Amino acid sequence: QMQLEESGGGLVQAGGSLRLSCAASGRAFSSYVISWFRQAPGKEREFVATVSASGANTQYADSVKGRFTISRDNAKRAVDLQMSSLKPEDTAVYFCKARRLGSTTDYWGQGTQVTVSS
Questions:
Q1: Are strands 10-13 and 112-117 parallel, antiparallel or unpaired?
Q2: Beta-sheet pairing, 58-60 with 68-73
Q3: Phi and psi at residue 88, in whole multiples of 5°?
Q4: What is the pLDDT of residues 36-83, one digit of tens each?
Q5: How many CB atoms lie within 10 A of CB 95?
Q6: Cβ(9)–Cβ(113) under 8 Å?
Q7: Where is 81: in which H helix or E strand?
Q8: Burial of 54 per CB tally in 10 Å (0-12, 13-18, 19+)
Q9: Is the pLDDT at 26 greater than 90, yes or no?
């Protein structure tokens, strides 16, 4: 069982930055792939970024590549999403998701709201 809690959302002007955090409680955190997703009003949830269990590998959606950076600290059981050059279209609820290596079970947090004003 893995529990996730996101924090760091808020209101920011276009061009600004925010840092989201995903804190995990549960065992074997370093065995989980962690991803960030987002969901805008009236739209489906979409992939944003993912980091491998070791932290060595990352992937990003094309829409955020070069602007967002995902990182993890396994000792602190935390994953951060540094967001820069924010655009109004980045406005969404951001969720983190955990999936243990070799498993198909996903654990989700409750989400944190990010609003980017133009």
A1: parallel
A2: unpaired
A3: -55, -30
A4: 999 999 999 999 999 999 999 999 999 999 999 999 999 999 999 999
A5: 21
A6: yes
A7: strand 78-83
A8: exposed
A9: no
